[in-house]
Amino acid sequence: MGKASSAFNPTDRPVSRCTAWIPSVPPERGSNRASSASNRSSAWTDAAVEAWAAAGGGGNMTKRSASENGTDRTSAFMKLRGLVGFRLVRGIPAEYYGDRYTSTYTESGQGPRSGHPTPLPTTVPPSIGAPSMATRVPSARAAGLHLAPTRTLGAFLGAGLLCLALSAVLTVSAGAQTPPEGPPAVLEADMVQTVVDSIAREALRDGRAAGISVAVTQGDEILARGYYGSVELELDVPTRPETVYEIGSVTKQFTAAAILQLAERGALDLDADLTEYLPDYPTGGRFLPVRRLLDHTSGIRGYTELPEFRLLSIRDVPRDTLVATFASRPFDFEPGEAAIYNNSAYYLLGMVIEAVSGLEYADYVEEHLFGPAGMAGSSYCSETRITPGKAKGYSWTPEGLVHRDPIVHSHPYAAGSLCSTTLDLVAWTRALHGGEILGEEGHRTLVTGGTLNDGTVLRYGGGLSLTPIQGHRAWHHGGGINGFLSHLAYLPDHDLTLAVLINTAGPVAPGGVVSDVVAALVGTESVEAHPLPRSGEFYAGTYEGIGRGAPMRIRITAGGGELNLSMGSGTPEARPLVHLGSDRFALGTQEFTFEWQGDAVVRVRADLGGSYTFLHPVAEGDPSR
Q1: In the Cβ-directed half-sphere of 528, how many Cα atoms lie within 13 Å?
Q2: Domain 536-618 = CATH 3.40.50.150
Q3: pTM of the model as a whole
């Protein structure tokens, strides 16, 4: 793409000293339903461990002394063998896994509908599996990564926060986290590869996805990488290390990093009004700081939730036309009053980057983010340009896989239009959190939850969800765009990075794959469920509101001393809530806080892991519902 004007070098300007302080309250401890390992299935784990042991693994998986490891921990080998039941994504709705916050671009490419072409073959070629651990990967090496031979690597086991990667939704923080003491435990690279192989192959079972690529690193060591299934079903082309995927909303952390990079150099002020950089944008006289766009608290209407977006997404309409579709709509709420995941905000941030830097968004990302991170296989996606190694995207239907719906990439733009590989993404994560992209101040803003006007601290920073994964502190994000799903996660207490890319929009959630691998490698931190403070019947009822710009409906039922939640229309499965104390309950990474007037619930504060909204009680017999 060409330049908007003259090139801009972020180093030309001094580092800004004027950035508002953000409370650094880490996300609260996890909200997974408490349960013992004894009632969880370990059949898959047994098979994986036996296969690994038969191949000669486990030589260093012995109990480590306190002097070696900072604490006396049980054998990591035995921890893996007796581990929890893995949620292997057998068609369970994604909202109960890790991708509630994947971009709504996916929605237009999912599910059966009239006019679908004949389903594609549901069989996929066998996995390439893990290539030789000595294989050279230029882009990874350019970023300082190197492949781990079959020797012991520093890895993981510690205490942390919680659960999955549900949405880029935002969440209240309740308490500080104590980082693990001493160095992390040691795992064998061969064992990590066995875990990844087993989980990834299960994800492809029954033709639920065409292909999947996975990479796991700790520090600068590549512990595991695998390429499974097909990048093009018609020609039976296998997935390879260089396979390029559209990464959807994982793009947002690149956009946020660019904004923070410019802020660190004094080129923009995060607390300045948006109209200082986009003077023609109609804010209705509101003061709208740039910072509010980073954490989804702007109140601007999300364009991907508008009814006309589906038609616009397949047409190459001018930018002004697209912006007008949401700029003309009333704000969903006043800036800072709530947090709802919003693609319009990141679209506008892309425009801010161009206005401040003088470069087109794609050029800025290429020069100042991809280049320093050594991401040779990454680019701004194009529906017309030939991209070597790029996978074809598919959508799942009950009848089989079909070609994805088309999309014009000028529409996702800075909210979701980048393409990358798993190895490029782990290289990016290393650079982003290793001081190569941002300074200390910028990075702190990136990984610190935003704050609402009432002081509520969110679990979303700059393009990153701060919800824990399996109880461990994590900075991560998922993505979804027509025919593709993605998840990129970093666990700072273990220096562990996981990248999962899938070329099918369907039931296999990459966030679920990430969560299962994390559970296998570092275990699951659970929380103790507390007894209900009052009779469950007082909580029971139906509640409605707007979540992520779309109608949201939950039903609470009571029984056996606990509450159950079902979400959506029809007769969705009811899932038990974990009582965290007071009137706070959790389902995975989602949290629900009941607010009372006497003995009646007046509203439910819903923290969806990337959106923060309110649900209100609805009369059970209301015929309009």
Answers
A1: 2
A2: no
A3: 0.69
